[in-house]
Design brief:
Blueprint lengths: L10 H4 L6 H10 L3 H13 L6 H13 L3 H9 L6 H13 L3 H13 L8 H11 L3 H13 L6 H13 L3 H10 L5 H13 L3 H9 L6 H13 L3 H13 L6 H14 L2 H13 L6 H13 L3 H10 L5 H13 L3 H13 L6 H13 L3 H14 L6 H13 L3 H10 L6 H5 L17 H17 L12
């Protein structure tokens, strides 16, 4: 039986010759699969309804939401004279599906054919410019929006402000904000976010304090701004004010607070945030659960991290990576490698970050055998190109074992040889760069190993884990 039957689209119904627009619209509203959609679309064509742009927009919107953008484009380009609403929908579909260049090409095509944009066209197109960092085209479209008479539209202005800040032009972002006669909470929040992104914490706080009304997004952005600027105490002070203002936090707020706990190295405060979520009915989803694992691990409670991991019903790659790394840096290398193998059995594909955790686990337990095995497995089994963190781990293992020829071979094989500071640390006391060392000479090899061991001791995990050595 066809899946289309699930919403009472019977063969008799599809075979009716008097298939009307309202009936097709109802079926499209109930449609849940791409197969169903194609069946309904075929019936629409046979019934002579392919001129009905309301139906075609429903099809385009469904395809946009279900990762069938090519089919949506096929439907769109068969419309002889799309309405501006239909152009907007297709531009929006491209923008939301990481096809911003296609969105901009379609906008240019729309303009060349003489179809007039409206106030809804410009936010979609400007967002596409922001996504692909097309500053010059976005600036030109700003001018076109002014000529079209939409310079005072609040949605256009909010999108323009966001565009300029994302393109690194804080000056123009400020100008848009200052020229706005009417502002809503999105306007103020966009300004705060933009100033934070441009590194002006003081100005962002000043705008935040002048906001006539603040919602959870506004509070969260400002809290996160302080966390990113390594001012966790101020982040918690803002959270206290947020509660006094009777604004309920969301999971993004709480994840920012967990990062603040990590910055403070306060396990007690981290447990308080965890308890707060439990008392207020927050679910242990992938996003929040992964943040909890990270906090517990970096604040010294591997037990707490593992407890959260085991309770999570769904886990992302980031979740596995966090737990594997946590086990490794706490000295449980074998457990970390066992967890990696468990991850593979669940058909989760590892990435470069996974192998940073795996190789770090080998490094923490001084396990050269497994380190070599997983380094080769990463490159040959998964086709992952080594990054400098991978090289750092494996070179350190070879250095400890005195296998200096292998050290030399790996260093010479590295795709980037000039940036020695990343691999060896910045505190080299004026010693020779890697490129200047001759690995046939014992003195040069000893120099290299000495520098590597010194820097791994100075720049090791103690600086990451606040509870151990600060």
């Amino acid at each position: 039986m066809s899946q289309i039957h699930s919403f009472s689209c019977t063969p008799d119904l599809l075979s009716k010759t008097n298939f009307a627009s309202q009936e097709a619209f109802t079926l499209l509203q109930k449609c849940t699969t791409f197969r169903q959609l194609k069946q309904i679309h075929a019936k629409i064509i046979r019934a002579g309804l392919s001129h009905d742009q309301l139906l075609l927009r429903k099809i385009i919107n469904f395809c946009s939401s279900h990762d069938h953008l090519e089919y949506a484009a096929l439907v769109f380009h068969q419309i002889p004279s799309p309405l501006t609403f239909t152009w907007n929908l297709m531009i929006r579909a491209y923008t939301l599906n990481a096809s911003s260049h296609q969105a901009l090409l379609l906008y240019t095509f729309m303009m060349s054919r003489g179809f007039p944009p409206d106030k809804f066209t410009f936010p979609f197109v400007i967002k596409a410019c922001a996504t692909c960092s097309s500053f010059h085209q976005g600036h030109a479209i700003h001018g076109q929006s002014i000529k079209a008479g939409f310079s005072g539209d609040i949605f256009v202005q909010n999108t323009l402000m966001d565009f300029y800040f994302k393109c690194g032009n804080a000056h123009n972002g400020r100008k848009v904000f200052e020229k706005m006669h009417v502002r809503n909470v999105v306007s103020w929040t966009t300004m705060v976010r933009g100033l934070l992104a441009s590194g002006d914490l003081h100005a962002a706080r000043a705008i935040f304090e002048h906001m006539p009304a603040k919602n959870v997004v506004s509070w969260t952005i400002m809290i996160d701004g302080y966390v990113k600027n390594r001012q966790p105490e101020e982040a918690f002070e803002l959270f206290r004010r947020m509660q006094l203002d009777n604004v309920s936090p969301n999971e993004f707020t709480l994840v920012s607070l967990l990062k603040a706990c990590t910055e403070l190295g306060s396990l007690k405060l981290g447990r308080w945030v965890h308890d707060f979520t439990l008392k207020n009915g927050f679910n242990l989803d992938v996003f929040f659960g992964t943040a909890l694992i990270d906090m517990y691990s970096k604040c010294g409670s591997l037990e707490g991290a593992r407890r959260v991991f085991d309770k999570m019903q769904a886990r992302s790659l980031a979740t596995w990576n966090s737990m594997i790394t946590s086990l490794g840096v706490h000295g449980f290398g074998e457990e970390a490698l066992a967890l990696f193998e468990e991850m593979e059995r669940t058909d989760v594909q590892p990435d470069a970050i996974t192998f940073v955790g795996v190789l770090s686990a080998c490094l923490q337990t001084n396990n050269l055998h497994d380190g070599r095995k997983y380094f080769e497995y990463m490159t040959e089994g998964y086709g992952i190109s080594p990054i400098w963190e991978h090289y750092t781990c494996i070179i350190e293992l070879y250095s400890r074992a005195g296998m200096l020829d292998e050290v030399g071979r790996l260093v010479k094989a590295m795709p980037v040889k000039a940036n020695d500071e990343q691999l060896w640390g910045s505190n080299t006391n004026g010693t020779a760069s890697v490129g200047e060392l001759d690995f046939r000479k014992t003195d040069d090899l000893d120099c290299l190993v000495a520098r590597k061991c010194y820097n791994s001791d100075q720049l090791g995990w103690r600086r990451v884990f606040k509870w151990d050595g600060g």
